[in-house]
């Protein structure tokens, strides 16, 4: 049984190590409750090929509350901004979670950007190609 469809989107811009995800969007064909958008920066190495949150943390969240079906919800006013400690390989991670009236539990979906590479020991960073992703770059499910 399908309850509805969601459309998720985020766009990331880099300036040195600083990333800004704007827009971060959510839209559903049916109304949802308690929508939360989250953002974080991950680093990748031999120990963490699937990514691991940077330290110190740059995690942030945006509570959107209840969203009517067909209405676009965004991380306002400025999206997710992070200035993490320097890492050689990283990404931006976003997760959306929500509930549905009449159904227990929470639905969620996460996605990561393509990998971000640090050039040498300086402050120059660039995105890899669109196929340059860490392990498990997207997924979702239900917890209830």
Structure description:
The chain is an all-beta fold. The protein contains no helices and twelve strands. The strands form two sheets. Strands 3, 4, 5, 8, 9, 10, 11 and 12 form an eight-stranded antiparallel sheet that branches. The radius of gyration is 16 Å and the shape is elongated. The two termini are 17 Å apart. The mean pLDDT is 96.
Overall pLDDT, averaged? 96
**General form:** elongated
Radius of gyration: 16 Å
Count of β-strands: 12
Q: How many DSSP helices?
A: 0
pLDDT below 50 for ≥5 consecutive residues: which ranges?
none
Structural class by sheet pairing and helices: mainly beta
State the domain count. 1
Percent helix: under 10%
Strand content: over 45%
Using the 3D structure, state the CATH architecture: Sandwich
- Element string (H = helix, E = strand): EEEEEEEEEEEE
CATH class (first level) name = Mainly Beta
CATH topology: Immunoglobulin-like
The major beta sheet can be summarized as: 8 strands, antiparallel
Give the key terms.
mainly beta; 144 residues; 8-stranded antiparallel β-sheet; Immunoglobulin-like; single chain; 4-stranded antiparallel β-sheet
SSE map:
Blueprint: E1 6-15, E2 18-28, E3 32-43, E4 52-53, E5 60-67, E6 73-74, E7 80-82, E8 89-99, E9 106-112, E10 116-119, E11 124-127, E12 138-143
Antiparallel strand pairs: 1-2, 2-6, 2-7, 3-4, 3-5, 3-8, 8-9, 8-10, 9-12, 10-11
Provide a concise account of the structure shown:
This protein is an all-beta fold and 144 residues long. It contains no helices and 12 strands.
